[in-house]
Specification:
The chain is mainly α. It is built from 4 helices and 2 strands. The chain has one domain.
């Protein structure tokens, strides 16, 4: 799982998103959960990789550094 998260792409700019139109009688009380990536490649990523991309480049790199250290710590033989 760590390697999978570390393989998430690092977009140079915030990825474009679009609001999904939901038709119905009940209005959405949380419209922010109805966004999806415009780029189909990003939209088909796993939930974990989508979160990595949403963090933004600086935070994603910081988290990837932490994940690399964590992986190294748990992979050491005792």
């Amino acid at each position: 799982m760590i390697d999978h998260l570390m393989a998430a792409p690092e977009p140079s700019a915030p990825p474009a998103v679009r609001l999904i139109e939901v038709k119905g009688e009940v209005p959405s009380t949380r419209p922010w959960v109805r966004y999806e990536y415009v780029d189909e490649k990003l939209e088909t990523m796993s939930s974990g990789q989508k979160i990595m991309v949403r963090l933004g480049r600086d935070h994603e790199r910081r988290l990837k550094g932490w994940l690399a250290g964590f992986r190294q710590a748990i992979a050491k033989p005792r």
